[in-house]
Amino acid sequence: MPREIITLQLGQCGNQIGFEFWKQLCAEHGISPEGIVEEFATEGTDRKDVFFYQADDEHYIPRAVLLDLEPRVIHSILNSPYANLYNPENIYLSEHGGGAGNNWASGYSQGKKIQEDIFDIIDREADGSDSLEGFVLCHSIAGGTGSGLGSYLLEKLNDRYPKKLVQTYSVFPNQDEMSDVVVQPYNSLLTLKRLTQNADCVVVLDNTALNRIATDRLHIQNPSFSQINQLVSTIMSASTTTLRYPGYMNNDLIGLIASLIPTPRLHFLMTGYTPLTTDQSVASVRKTTVLDVMRRLLQPKNVMVSTGRERQPSHCYIAILNIIQGEVDPTQVHKSLQRIRERKLASFIPWGPASIQVALSRKSPYLPSAHRVSGLMMANHTSISSSPFSLFSYILLQCVFIQQRPVSVLSQYLMICIVLKLKLSHHSSSSRGKSTKIRFWIVILPNYNSLKLDVFSSFYWYEL
């Protein structure tokens, strides 16, 4: 029996990457843009029911809910060749259509007002599932709708569906470019609290690393949003291949993430994929054996998160899951794992086993492939949060530095407290040689006038 998964797409970024994801799934399962199975795909052994269901006229409809507070992106989807693919009852647009103004507080407060309409859609989709396993949330943490409304939905999903898994594909902002959104660090920080407390698994998609990969690996000088979204859709589709093309193991979502998350809070995952190709690029990888693919997945240049782990040798892996696609002999997998352990290509935490799980999956028979073997790595690594070069550290430092700006810019936010504590090494013999430590305690509270909510706050600390 398939374990169904409902996809929730929030805001501009969430709907754009969700649109590319459904295009990829349709191509892999031989489904036309109208939802009709092509003649060459009628006898497939894949499990479409995990992400699709059949309407009365036998065409396939995605288990997707499209949500946005402004109409531009969803209107572009409805004007695309895939307009008839979606269920129009599963699309929600705000009545005023003004959006959240890139403001977390606005998106969160609007979520409280429209929650009944949204959960009418979600409940109807859940009731139509035979064995619902969980939800997949696609969003950005930097804007207003994806961060604010996404945070509110995460809290409510935990209340209404406490036994269902919630996995998110969260897009982090580009660190190499100056954002036009002044309060972007606050949007990110407030969303990270909800991702930490209310999500079961967070797949981190770093715009900085995605742009770097598109430039360095695919040789695209100025990658567009569409090309970046294609990379994201590749990651999303590859991470669900074992659900859609089942084998002996990892046939459901809990089976995928159970080996990667040792404790509930350690659920922020990084991904890597090889070999990468686009329509405009020429394949640069000529040999794709299992060992070559698994070795490339461990290289920082193929990882889609900027952690600076090459500068932090003390950081290590907590767990690794490699999803290998193609016709692979299991003996090759065992030899590759043995070679990786012998050469110590990956270092692991001292308080747990060296966990490298490998899941084998078939490739879609309906898509041409230039490579015999391809692989996706989903990994839990200590540098994703605790490194000074991590995304979390960067966002927190941005919040500190933004205090240099005029107060009027931050009128929608109220900074309650910033305490800076310096522990400087003394010149006494007892403390000589000790490193300097800097700690920031930040409590951020949204403005009550714009939120009209009870008192709640986000508490974070940072140490150098």
Describe this structure in words.
The protein has 464 residues and is α/β, with parallel strands linked by helices. The chain is globular and about 60 Å long. Helices cover 34% and strands 22% of the residues. It is built from 14 helices and 15 strands. The strands form 3 sheets. The chain has a 10-stranded mixed β-sheet with strand order 5-4-1-6-7-8-9-12-10-11, sandwiched between helices. It has a 3-stranded antiparallel β-sheet with strand order 13-14-15. It has a two-stranded antiparallel sheet with strand order 2-3. Keywords: Cytoplasm, Cytoskeleton, GTP-binding, Microtubule, Nucleotide-binding. One of its GO terms (cellular component) is microtubule.
Describe this structure in a few short sentences.
The chain is an alpha/beta fold and 464 residues long. Helix content is 34%, strand content 22%.
